[in-house]
Amino acid sequence: MTRRRIIIAAASAAAALAASIAALSATHAGTTARATAVGQQITIPGTAILWAPPPADAQPALTADQAWGAKFSPGESVPDGTTVQLGSLTDAVGEYCGVSCDMWTTVDGISYRAYNVLAYGYYWRSCANDSQAELDCQHWEFIDADTGAYIMGVGPRMQAIPPHESASDSSSPQPTDSASPSQG
After folding, report:
1. How many CB atoms lie within 10 A of CB 45?
2. Fewer Cβ in 10 A, N or C end of the chain?
3. How many domains does the structure of the chain reveal?
């Protein structure tokens, strides 16, 4: 009798897990861009921006395509060759500076442009002048995963190529000077 209860409990748990996975898939079924969760915290090369794993229970209100469309054009999908990650974004502005810093979130005397904001990070490489250095090639856009509000972007130091034109760049060797989403 005990063994039968264990089997029934296991079957119920498996059915609940399958339903949860189906619900998550249905939520993102209309998107062409599949966001992967950030695996480990990194600092965006050339900045002090922290890009960290999202909370374990994170459920963004928008898909990656919806957030992208909110920034660029409704209905526009994330361009091919773009890596999309869901993560927690933190960018410190500096010590609280009075009224001038009131537009930012302030925690423990430090003002932040973004403080643990659930966001989509869109990344693509576009290298100019034959450079393969991450700072010369990286392009990031960060958009709030719940509201679609644009947070910030980080571009290369040199002239960049838009992501839809850099598909051939995706097979380029990854630089070793800093972390990109595929290295982090």
Report:
1. 18
2. N
3. 2
86-95 pLDDT tens trace? 999 999 887 8
97 vs 43, higher pLDDT:
43
> β-strands 83-95, 50-52: how paired?
antiparallel
Measure the CA–CA gap between 125 and 91, rounded to whole angstroms: 22
Q: Where does residue 84 fall: left (phi above 0), alpha (psi -120 to 50 degrees), or beta otherwise? A: beta
| pLDDT at residue 163, as a whole number | 52
Residues 54 and 133 grouped into a single domain = yes
Residue 117 CB partners (closer than 8 Å, separation 6+):
88, 89, 90, 144, 151
17 and 93 within one domain: no
How many Cβ atoms sit within 10 Å of the Cβ of residue 111? 19
Whether the model pTM is above 0.85: no
Q: Quote the domain boundaries for residue 120.
A: 33-171
Chain centroid to CA 156: 18
Q: How many CA atoms lie less than 13 Å away from 69 in the CB half-sphere?
A: 12
Q: Clarify whether residues 45 and 101 are in a common domain.
A: yes
Going 118 to 38 to 67 to 73, the CA torsion angle's sign is positive
